[in-house]
Sequence to fold (129 residues):
Amino acid sequence: MLFIMMTKDSIGQNLKNHQWKNRVLLVLSNSESNRAFKKQMLQFTDVEALKERKLLVYQIFPDNYLLGKKREKSTLFFEQFMKDKETFRVVLIGLDGGIKYSQTEVLSRDKLFDIIDSMPMRQAEIRRN
Fold:
């Protein structure tokens, strides 16, 4: 019981570090060779558009995750966000730390940006800039 509580706290703490600073997209896959995963990652070639939207992309696998070029050993994200028998999932987490969108198919860059750009906090960012 204590282990379960600690792992959930660990995941929450990791994501909490981004709260109010960054939006987070979790790209979960059963393997790096998964076709949907590869196709999803091709959607993120426009680094400036990601920066403009304060979007960080975590690549999450069963026993590790990658943020940028930094790889960490962990099963926590995968276990928390991936459902049984799924091989692929994307989860968008807003600036407030809440889950804003989730699906088990490749999410196009345009749809992702439309979702983010329609959020009230993003609208305020656009007006300020």
User: Anything to note?
Assistant: The beta strands are 23-29, 55-61, 64-67, 70-73, 88-93, 99-103. The first strand starts at residue 23 and ends at 29. The CA atoms of residues 58 and 70 lie 10 Å apart.
